[in-house]
Specification:
The protein is 58% helix and 6% strand. It has a five-stranded mixed sheet. Helix 4 packs antiparallel against helix 5. The chain contains 23 helices and five strands.
Amino acid sequence: MSKKTIILIGFIILKFVLQYVLLSPEYDLQRDEYLHLDQGNHLAWGYLSVPPVTSWFSYIILLLGNSVFWVKFFPALFGVLTLVIVWKTIETLKGNLYALILGAVCIVFSSLLRINMLYQPNSLDILCWTAFYYAMIQYFKTEKTKWFYIAAIVFALGFLNKYNILFLLIGLFPALLLSRQRKILAEKQLYFALILGLILILPNLLWQYNNQFPVVHHMKELSEKQLVNVDRVGFLKEQLLFFIGSLLVIIAGLYALLFYKPFGKYKFFFTSILFTLIIFLYFKAKAYYAIGLYPIYIAFGSVFLSEVLKTGWKRYLQPAFIIIPLLFFIPIYNLAFPNKSPEYIVSHSEKYKKLGMLRWEDGKDHALPQDFADMLGWKELARKTDSVYALFPNSEKTLVLCDNYGQAGAINYYTKKGIKAVSFNADYVNWFNLDVCYKNLIRIKEYEENSNEFKETSPYFESSFIGSQITNKYAREYKTTIFVFTGAKININKRLAKEIKEEKNYAD
């Protein structure tokens, strides 16, 4: 085994270990993770919220026992593979051992640790961006057309994971047109590769068509409720933070793409990043959508710096470029990960507020970062729902109806009673079982100061009462209430079918 391989294995082990130790056990899974895990119980070629790939991994996690270890394993794996591809890119660009170590340090001690912490499509999205760029570099280095097909497969996987990868192509195409590499467009094999990619994503496109393109409704809702709060200046500021310890390396990579002769054939990568960022800015995208851009530029920068710092007094600067990401990681370790108690964060809120970490999607500041607040209260909700559910002897005739997908997913993940909670929110609108004649209703309701739930629902049942409430004041679901209604006076199923139809018509 070579020295390089041993060092790479060391970085891989370090990356895996960090992904597990940076999570405090007092936090639950995050809201979105529960929805993605539940999709493994409802395999399809598409969902209202995401394309299908996440559900495939959720099904594998289900087969492996559905434990938190495996939930955290796959995003960590995608982060490790991103590291390996950057390593291989540096080797392709003829980087030496110093370049390999520098690139690995920059990847490991970056915002990817935060991204790879959560079971969401983002980790695989970044991996696919990096792998696609790697395939492009390999093609222009070797001119072997097999890389067209590899790129097509990577793009298809990325598309079936998160539509965000479309921005990669939109930014890359004009960059290629403006470069000498536009001769690639005359390659016949390129178009066969495009056909292959289209065939691979076709099942999802057909699913979108058959379901009246819910992605359009999803993007419209996202734009109206979340992206409207995105500040373009804030977007650019956040780009500097994602790889702040590696910023000099990325800048060196961009400089090298313009002026370093060995990178001449890759010059279009410089304009590609500019076009892609402009497109993200135009659409007021969330800042983290662009993270997939940067790993490949770390590879360029690492190789360039290894040459620049190779001789004379400059070689004494080599350790500095490796130490800088480690030094920046110290404050990031103390702030960006859920490794501090909620009480600690609240008592030290000023430093979190200065970094904008307390600002949620609603544009307001809160007690905890949104992701952290979304990791609290879920076990409590499931435990209390189980206790209420156990009151009914014919529990199979009891419907658990939630306000949002986080509530439904968390109950389904933690339940000891085999509950199949549903919601009119997100994908759950398609997962109601109307073959059961429901007699009782457990209604999980987000807190409202003057709730009309009893007034609106009690007339349809013989009795009603409040079963419990979420008491964790730091949870985003704080005061979420469990209403219980028993002895239905009407046919609940007909009412449900009507509301499901109305919800789908609204989405359309």
